[in-house]
Design a protein that fits this description.
This protein is mainly beta. The protein has three helices and 23 strands.
């Protein structure tokens, strides 16, 4: 931005804040108006970042007919894990970590996003993958290709959207967000311990103006199990978000959220997780817990001011299990990030989430890309009643460099403390990652 030509500047940002804005305001659409076909109106974003102009017919990987249009996209994630320390107590808890020190393909995924061109277009996504990209305790490691994300987003009257298919559950911002949009390489141990990577279900979502969102959902994973629908656990979820404070230029914003989930627990519950490294053994694990039902509570608060983002999430699970002493499991994470190069994460008013870090000056246009530092503190407690799943604390530091919007180099360091089996063990590690997105 050439601020020395201020007389001709219509819009300018500096250090993540808007300093000039002479653009005309676009009036809101009148009630009942048909939304523009090219706006991504689904509650959850695609499983990875896609170009803003995903509908641009000039791109080589797009197609368009009268009935259907789409964008072919994909990503590859390459990891190199280094374990920097492990004491004898930790080795007694989880075994030798040297067996998990190697380079690996963290994941490969590809698919199509696009529209079915009805009068009010439906959005669709179909993605295949190898391995468990959004790792969780109930995802099996496999090298086979898996149809892991497929969804239809159907617009309804009154500005509602119905999402049907295999998708992320609509609870907690970190779970709803795409993994490539987060400041850290992996989701927090709290989200991965309590929530599956994907589940089959339906989500009905809407907004309450520009400052609030809501979603209600029902899930049952019988399609991927060997059980019938009536014998498989069903979960019913609700999430509401609210922006109680926002500056006039929207660079300073406070987000609050509340989520609830009821599970009928027709199958035994199991909560367990790796220590926020994909190439690692499971540290905390409750084993199977037979229960009558379970209720999950989630609180979230995020504050963004220009290039700075700070977020807190708490999850508690009240398990109705007389045999296990009615245990209560819980955890939280506190995450912060700062874009050294000044970029600001956009806020999605449709779903109450933040986008990934934009790249204002990519290296292929004479810039240095986008550089971001991050930290996270995680606390997970899976020990209560007669269940000794362990108590785990994780301190994480991260550095992300996006040379362009389709490539990222990142480093994550973690120190892990695990209290389990009557002993407390410490370990630490470093993971280097290369992420490449298909443009």
């Amino acid at each position: 931005v050439l601020l020395d030509t201020k007389a001709h500047v219509r819009f300018a940002m500096q250090a993540g804040a808007i300093v000039v804005n002479e653009l005309p305001e676009v009036p809101p659409a009148p009630p009942g108006a048909t939304p523009r076909a090219r706006v991504w109106r689904a509650y959850a974003p695609p499983p990875m970042a896609v170009p803003i102009q995903y509908y641009d017919s000039r791109k080589w990987n797009t197609f368009s007919t009268k009935a259907v249009s789409g964008l072919i996209t994909g990503a590859v994630i390459l990891d190199r894990q280094f374990w920097t320390s492990q004491d004898a107590e930790s080795e007694g808890q989880v075994g030798e970590l040297e067996d998990f020190e190697s380079g690996k393909i963290r994941g490969f995924r590809g698919g199509v996003v696009g529209t079915l061109n009805f009068k009010r277009p439906w959005r669709y996504i179909v993605f295949v993958a190898t391995n468990a990209f959004d790792k969780a305790f109930d995802v099996r490691e496999t090298d086979d290709f898996t149809l892991f994300d497929y969804r239809l987003d159907i617009p309804l009257p009154a500005d509602l959207t119905l999402s049907v298919g295999k998708q992320r559950e609509s609870i907690t911002m970190e779970r709803v967000s795409s993994l490539t949009n987060l400041p850290m390489q992996e989701r927090s141990a709290v989200n991965d311990a309590f929530l599956p990577a994907r589940n089959h279900g339906v989500i009905l979502s809407g907004t309450g103006g520009d400052r609030s969102t809501w979603a209600v959902a029902a899930f049952n994973d019988w399609i991927d199990s060997d059980e019938s629908f009536s014998d498989t656990t069903s979960a019913y979820t609700g999430r509401v978000t609210w922006v109680p404070a926002v500056s006039q230029d929207e660079s300073n914003l406070l987000h609050l959220g509340l989520g609830l989930q009821y599970s009928d627990a027709k199958q035994p519950l199991r909560f367990g997780v790796r220590p926020e490294f994909n190439n690692a053994p499971r540290y905390a694990d409750t084993g199977e817990v037979s229960a009558d039902d379970a209720m999950m509570y989630n609180l979230e608060a995020y504050w963004r001011k220009g290039p700075t983002l700070v977020g807190f999430e708490y999850i508690g699970v009240d398990v109705d299990s007389a045999d296990s002493g009615d245990p209560y499991f819980s955890g939280y994470h506190l995450t912060g990030s700062w874009a050294v190069t000044g970029e600001m994460r956009a806020y999605r008013k449709r779903s109450g989430t933040f986008d990934g870090l934009p790249v204002a000056r990519p290296v292929n246009r004479g810039g240095w890309g986008a550089l971001e530092t991050a930290f996270r503190v995680t606390r997970l407690d899976l020990t209560d009643g007669t269940v000794d799943g362990g108590e785990m604390d994780v301190l994480s530091l991260g550095l992300n460099w996006w040379p362009t919007r389709t490539s990222q180099f990142s480093l994550n360091y973690r120190h892990i403390t695990l209290d389990r089996f009557g002993i407390e063990g410490d370990s630490s590690g470093l993971n280097a990652r290369l992420l490449l997105l298909l443009d």
